[in-house]
Amino acid sequence: MATDLRISNISKIYPGCVANDNVSLQFKSGKIYALLGENGAGKSTLVKILSGVISPDNGEVFLNKKNLKLSSPLDAKKNKIGMVFQHFNLFETLSVFENLSIDATEDNKSLRVRINEILKKYNFSINLDVPVLNLSAGQKQKVEIIRCLLRSPKVLIMDEPTSVLTEQETEELFISLKKFCDEGILIIYITHKLKEVLSLCDEVAVMRKGKVVSVSQTQNEKVETLANKMVGQKLAKIKKKINISKNKDEIFKVKHLNFYSDDPFETNLVNLNFSVKKGECLGIAGISGNGQNELFQILSGEIITPDTSIIFRNKEIAKLNPKQRREYLMAFSPEDRISQAAVPELKIYENVALNNFKSSNFFEKGLVNERKIKEHSKKILSDFSVNTDNVELKSQFLSGGNLQKLILGRELITAPELLICYNPTWGLDVGAINYIHETLIKINDQEKSTILISTDTEELLKLSDRIAVIYKGKLSKIMPSEEVTPEKLGVLMGGGSID
Amino acid sequence: MVPLIKIEKRNDVPMALYFFTPFIAIILTILGGGIIFYILGFNPIEALKFYFITPISNLYGLSELLLKATPLCLIAIGLSFCFKSNNWNIGAEGQLTFGAIVGGGVALLFYNQEGFYILPLVILAGAIGGMIFALIPAILKTYFNTNEILVSLMLVYVSKLLLDYLVVGPWSNPEGFNFPETRQFSDSSRMPLLFEGLRIHAGIFLALAAVMLSWFILYKTYLGFQIKVSGLSLKTAKYAGFKGKTMILVVFMISGACAGLAGVGEITGPIGQLHRMISPDYGFTAIIVAFLGRLNPFGIIFASLVVALTYLGAETAQIFLQIPKYTGQVFQGMILFFLLASDYLLFFKVKILNLKKNELRH
Predict the structure, then answer these.
(1) A239 occurs within a structural domain
(2) Do B239 and A302 touch (CB under 8 A)?
(3) End-to-end distance of chain B based on CA atoms, in angstroms?
């Protein structure tokens, strides 16, 4: 039976922000629909309304002409609307089967039979009796999908599903999604990755500032046209000129970096050796969870490993803490910008004071120099076009892009010789990504170096001079970026080998 | 129908309400107390009057109130440094006792001497004693990863037993007919009284100085900034490169010194010697004071007065209503309970969903 989902005049207003402004959309089974938009465009709000997590202030949802009352996630389930979130809702220490049986209505025996049928039908290879923590991200996602399929959904909503997947896993996912679609499941695919929209979806709705700004057939669209619709302005294309020069000095050199942890959720690092030249960007690719966290913390000095040697500007810094490393002109932008790089409850100027370098005079003789910190913060806000000039604002009220600009601004105001960043544009919108990328390129142009640890291959190819891949705590050989293709990276990131 | 309770975090908690909930907790405590008195067969209004009004209806009562608030305030100020930076020092009672032992030891050295220098020495010794005793859980935490809650709590019993041993053994008064107490301190080791005939003594200035100083440190210095950041996010503190271990040691030292001062204030103030019962659990009660005062130096002044009143009220109630003075602890417990409960409702909202039985499983 065909499914017809209609959203009619949905509005949701939060204090100070209209998240959904009179949104109307229509979906029919047999097609894959993309919901595209920057962060804060209102996609998540709409999805939360469809899955019953929040209720709209206004408007209605119709499934096959029936007006749905979605006041809790249970209502969504009952109406056969399935949802796979970006972050998995699985118990890591329970087995796959136990995870699936938690909210099942049938007995274990018939459940297992049904799961096996699904596995066979869609060619999923997952061992049902291993703990979930042993699965790759792609497999975990499959478990979530199976959970939805067990309830024979009419609508399947996928929220940014590829952010944790390799190229190969993404391809597999797309094949499955197309199969579901052929079987009559209506698929709504939420993303801000333009290429995925073009390769997977049939129709695309673009949202901006809470409104639907365009609905079109993907065959009539290109990456540029979609990007412009999403941002609402023409984007300048940026491309880095490759900055390879053989005889430049090595400014940063890591030898025998080993890290061993008892914690099963941490990754051990095995004998990493690499160096960065002046003015160069070294990219480190990899799927998240392959040791990037640990590597970042060792490079920043949050973790001190005993036998590692780290030479920076001809000095051994392996035993120094992050503050001391900053004095040698290193700067760090961690992945978790919300709760590590900044404290949401602190005001902007207090967050700026976290980078308390010697010449800043933020704290003279141990006393807070509030005037100085605020002056300095104002400068960062204007130099890095953060969209406020109120240094007293708590940083939790900044959007992701503005927060990242603030953090980069804070780190760069010392004119560091080396910036180490980890997923600097993760979850940001196209406008902010562009800005951050331009900033990172500018750093290299000024003969300063960067280490870019990222899970976004496109970003790495765009910005890096040389690229290595980290897989299960081991580093591949370092390759000049013009020799690297997305496919090659994908193979290495998935644990394969090339040439 | 099956009621299903759902608990959600509130996004915007107004600051004004955050500082107002302690008052709600106090009002609820008084109501709760009234109910308890009613069940016990007393006229609740009358009983509450004995509890909360009679004790402070004369000058002597007010002096007693300040006398009891002084140690509570001092200890809670110290604890606020620990709690704000996510260090759970539960052993202020032990630090108080050890401070009193060290300060009392010095005072006993001078038992038959007079001199203006003696009292400052005694006070200093008490602060250092408390500091050293607080350093034990701090060092064990920073270098051996022990849990400071357990260590600091268990050390309370160590110091209390040590005090017991000293007052019945080596330090007991040779002319004291084997009572478990030391000699009386000389007048030079005693806190000057503020008014003739009242017990309120100069220790209150120590508490007020601690309030001002802690406000300055917490809000105007780099140390205060580091404490604030570490309390909100340890991850960020690590990333910023704050010397986490040093900070833990420092906050424990501050906390221990304050508790030590409180102990020395008691023995050189109202008590005048060492014996077994130098503190009616001020060190534990101060934990309630610190939270009721929202870990804010000026909030703590207010909270220490409120909680001190529960001590006084319990004593009056014992006299006039013939109920044990431990009802004071009941009131303190209720304050903490209602404070935590109203905080919970402040930060979370509770929704009750009514579902039909079969809806639960789909």
Answers:
(1) no
(2) yes
(3) 15
Nearest CA in chain B to A410: B240
Interchain pair B240, A354: CB under 8 A: yes
| Residue B59 touches partner A, C-beta closer than 8 Å | no
Q: Which residues constitute the domain of residue A209?
A: 4-231
pTM comes to 0.74
Please give, rounded to a whole number of angstroms, the shortest distance from the CA of A104 to a CA of chain B: 7
Asked if A224 and A254 sit in the same domain, the reply is no
- Segment 345-364 of chain A within 8 Å of chain B by CB: 345-346, 350, 353-356, 363
pLDDT tens digits, A47-86: 888 988 888 888 989 988 888 888 888 888 888 999 888 7
CB-CB under 8 Å, B361 with A354: no
Cβ-based contacts of A13 with chain B (< 8 Å): none
pLDDT in tens, A156-194: 999 888 877 777 888 888 999 999 999 889 999 988 777
Q: Which domains does chain B have, with CATH numbers?
A: 2-361 (1.10.3470)
With a CB cutoff of 8 Å and minimum separation 6, the contacts of B71 are B96, B203, B207, B262, B263, B265, B266, B279, B282, B286
The answer to whether position A238 is within a domain reads no
Torsion of CA B148, B149, B151, B153, to 10 degrees: 140
Q: How large is the ipTM?
A: 0.79
Task: Inform me whether the C-beta atom of residue B233 falls under 8 Å from chain A C-beta atoms.
Answer: yes
Contacts 24+ apart (CB under 8 A), B315-320: B315/B55, B316/B50, B316/B51, B316/B54, B316/B55, B317/B47, B317/B50, B317/B51, B320/B50, B320/B54
Q: A432 and A399 in one domain?
A: yes
Q: Is B161 exposed, middle or buried (0-12, 13-18, 19+ CB in 10 A)?
A: exposed
Residue A84 lies in a domain: yes
Residue whose C-alpha is closest to residue A272's, from A226, A310, A237, A219: A310
Compute the nearest-CA separation of A90 from chain B (Å): 18
